[in-house]
Specification:
homodimer; about 550 residues; alpha/beta; eight-stranded parallel sheet; six-stranded mixed sheet; 19 helices; 24 strands; about 20% strand; Amidohydro_3 (chains A, B); Metal-dep_hydrolase_composite (chains A, B); YtcJ-like (chains A, B)
Chain lengths: ~550, ~550
């Protein structure tokens, strides 16, 4: 009686697009470029023209001798610039980046005095804010030889609570007003997994790891409009740096709702692969299984982020042996083996991907053991991820490849951490530290990211670090543990194809093969040929996502 | 340099659809029908053919003499059946309906013994369920003269907790195991806004209004898969009854996530206008403003549902004078005036619509006063809604029209409640009870719904009630307070165009004017001509949403 009862709208639109479109009508061409991408196997493919179809996907890659399509909807002359796939940041905190862009940033300060000056100026400029919130301080960088104190802060902001997160997010610094507002008593005890810094037995102002929440719980929650503003600030920043996709590590339901608002209102451009901040958030966000890809491959809840230990700087990373600079301490274990297995099992049983934060060698071994146990029951393409994988006992490295475990690492951490890592670990335990090349040689899938806002999300700093293991100052000359330097193609791979693979997205973006989303950047340098210094300061000229330009650098810089 | 940088995919698809589509290609025709719809002003429009465009919207309405389009993608012969707009239920509980379809239903029981038999059978059939959950009991219908007790339940299910909601959702009935699991002590006190029924001073098993949570808090939460199953069960049920849209009253974030999962996976067909269950849920779901219409007008968070009082049956409705059958009691006030103003203001400041549950005349007066106060600050098209508006002091009726307040009412409640209402109010206070016609005459916008699962969602029972004010048994002959009967067109209006208007959807669905979503039903009776009895038992033959058939009755009934 009725010919069709399918969802006709979609089927018809698709049919019209395929049947009515005469060849090349409404396609776009980016021509005269020094184009490069990796293919599905990681081999470099060069091209001089890129044809984009109506869906915003790559239609064809053209070499110089190929005939150009005649009928085009638009055409861009790339003026010989390098065109490469948009960068995928395999580990970042989108809302954290957004809020950090909107709040007081102390990461550039070189002394306590400089920081206090910035804090006072910010408080004076924002008289209506009930709390002064900031982040990015690092007493190591200040050469202070101690943690800062509440008294330091009270001298510049006595009247309002001040709460400032350390650069690694693993410690917070409060003034007296903040401790009072939070009800921190002089005899407050260290919570499990946390430590209160003390002077004369009383809280001195800095709260480490689990102790952070003693103050943080009283910080007013951001409103939904604040979250929306933070997302847009983060997105603009990422696109300007050439990042077209990012794995969001520790997504909350409120974060997710902000992403959905942006998607629903068609202002979500950057592709977000979300990992919920714990099992409860995972279920609240996605329910019984990972979400589908939403908004033309711009958002998906892939799985869950789990924390095994803290950071090396605050001696929270869990080590197999004592800290070299603090005998008797081996870091903070966030979960025991049973708890870890239970959480990972809860995720895996419903096909959620697990991304486990492990910094120290003991934490890495703990999650490796858990994966080996779970892999017996949960078969198939699981893509277990270890986030950071900073300090690995060399004997554990083969265990990654055995279960196809992805090492999700951040090259810039190596640059920032090297002196601290030497102090914490001593020279004898550096063989498996930031061991990119050893992992690649062991056939471990590598994904690179920035850990923004812990570090700048600028991927060119990351690429330069990956191939040199030198800082921006050229130190140490020839690279720190130089045997772990990567080749340029390997480094680009980990920041594009590898990062997409780590998020189950390698058939959607991360390369520019035909059929993939046309996510690409135009650069003022060629990353395969430029000096490391030029690569580190490379500027993105244009960023395109899904065949639409979403960022363009101002001219005449 | 570049012709366009807009979101090209969408623009191009739209351009192709409009330019490439030759006239009538790929349109559909529903022909040979006895078609009726209201126009934008509520006037009846008749037609014999309906043309549906590629978008699933109404393209044209054809009269018998009109030429039919020549090129069609599909054609349906309506065989002379009545075609009318899909019903919009202005007040229901989608997940409540779904769970009620999946759980023990006591609403058909006529005696306590019959109910206990069903409970025992259900417990025996479901040995693995840790709690036995049900709803729908009504001690008034049982002629019990008292509330049932825990001891009644213990006799049939002694070993597992049992928790059964009353038909109106305003009381719960527990067995001893449930009270023990919930930790209800023999000396438990009545919480504010609630009452524990007692025997010899000890909790007897029934918990009224706010006291319900003393037990309900311990009921295991449904899992996401349970929610998904409940949504699909509810949707199937609604579509089979000819309901293509519904206002969901009291949406939680978990409900919302289930609706989004269905939308994301393209299995959400029924149109849901959601009203969050409180300010916190409103913000969690929508953030800084109502959501856009999602999934081709199938989901939107319109606003917030607020509760002012309880139900008449359990004497929770807030009255201006004492209950006739319980002197000294005037019901339960859920919020004071300041709290109500604060909540309504919080919603209105961000353009959220307010739907305020008010049953008793005092509760209606309270919300009317609040709206009058807020209307000074919050201008524009607010469409304040009062849900139920069951008992209105006649002096308050003009106050509805003054601020364009929508009376969102449920005709079947009048049928179920009339004897109870007479007992609670006495005959002297019935003038403003279920006063549909008085409200229409006062030019108050009327929206009709079912309050499912409190009542059956069957809209034909509601339509029959609206025009007769007689029960299915024909009692009382000529109708209860018959001056409040509505005309057929008025009743259909409130169940279609009026219900859509109440949800800011009148330009999207609710009528079949050109440009509206093609949501319609084919019926085995003509609601404008059939006897009230035939109308009450009308059967839906087909239900179409957005130009796609989503329900078809089995043949040969």
């Amino acid at each position: 009686m009725i010919a069709r009862t399918l969802s006709r709208g979609f089927a018809l639109a698709a049919a019209l697009l395929s049947s009515a479109a005469t060849p090349a009508l409404a396609d776009g061409l980016i021509d005269n470029v020094n184009g490069m991408t990796l293919d599905a196997k990681g081999k470099v493919v060069n091209f001089t023209g890129l044809v984009i179809d109506n869906d915003g996907k790559v239609k064809t890659l053209l070499e110089r001798r190929d005939k150009r399509p005649e009928k085009l909807d638009y055409k861009l002359d790339g003026e010989g610039r390098t065109l490469m796939p948009g960068i995928i940041d395999a580990h970042g905190h989108v809302m954290g980046l957004g809020f950090s862009l909107l709040t007081l940033d102390l990461s550039g300060t070189r002394t306590l005095e400089e920081a206090l000056g910035l804090i006072k100026a910010y408080a004076d400029e924002n008289p209506s804010r009930p709390w002064i919130i900031g982040r990015g301080w690092n007493q190591e960088k200040w050469g202070l030889g101690r943690f800062p104190t509440a008294a330091d802060l009270d001298a510049v902001v006595p009247d309002r609570p001040v709460w400032l997160e350390r650069v690694d997010g693993h410690a917070g610094w409060a003034n007296t007003a903040a401790m009072q507002a939070a009800g921190v008593k002089p005899d407050a005890k260290d919570p499990p997994g946390g430590r209160i810094e003390r002077i004369g037995g009383k809280p001195a102002g800095v709260f480490v790891d689990a102790a952070e929440s003693l103050v943080a719980k009283s910080v007013p929650m951001p409103r939904a409009v604040d979250r929306d503003a933070a997302l847009i600030a983060a997105q603009d920043h990422l696109l300007a740096l050439g990042i077209t996709g990012i794995a969001d590590m520790g997504t909350s339901i409120d974060d997710w709702q902000a992403y959905r608002r942006a998607g629903d209102e068609r202002r979500l451009y950057v592709r977000i692969m979300a990992y919920a901040g714990g099992i409860e958030s995972m279920v609240a966000i996605a329910g019984p299984r990972p979400t589908p890809w939403l908004y033309d491959d711009r958002l998906r809840l892939n799985g869950v982020k789990l924390y095994l230990d803290g950071a090396l700087g605050s001696r929270g990373a869990m080590l197999k042996a004592d800290y070299a600079d603090k005998p008797g301490e081996r870091g903070l274990a966030f979960v025991n083996d049973t708890q870890l297995l239970n959480m990972m099992s809860r995720a895996a049983m419903d096909e959620f991907q697990v991304a486990a934060h492990a910094i120290g060698d003991a934490a890495n071994a703990q999650v490796l053991s858990a994966i080996e146990e779970l892999a017996k029951d949960y078969k198939g393409d699981r893509r277990w991820r270890i986030e950071h994988a900073q300090i690995i006992d060399p004997v554990d490295i083969p265990r990654f490849a055995e279960n196809g475990i992805i090492a999700s690492m951040q090259p810039v951490h190596q640059i920032s951490d090297r002196l601290m890592a030497e102090a914490r670990l001593g020279t004898a335990r550096l063989a498996g530290a930031y061991a990119w090349k050893t992992l690649v040689d062991a056939e471990v899938p590598l994904a690179f990211g920035s850990d923004t806002p812990v570090e700048s999300p600028d991927p060119f700093a990351g690429l330069a670090a990956a191939i040199t293991r030198e800082g921006a100052d050229g130190q140490p000359f020839g690279g720190w543990q130089p045997q772990e330097r990567l080749g340029r193609v390997q480094a680009i791979d980990a920041f594009t194809r590898g990062a997409a693979y780590a998020g189950f997205a390698e058939d959607r973006f991360g390369t520019l093969q035909p059929g993939m989303r046309a996510d690409f950047i135009l650069l003022d340098v060629d990353p395969l040929l430029s000096s490391p210094g030029d690569l580190r300061t490379a500027k993105v000229v244009e960023t395109w996502v899904g065949g639409v330009r979403r960022y363009e650098a101002r001219r005449g810089r």
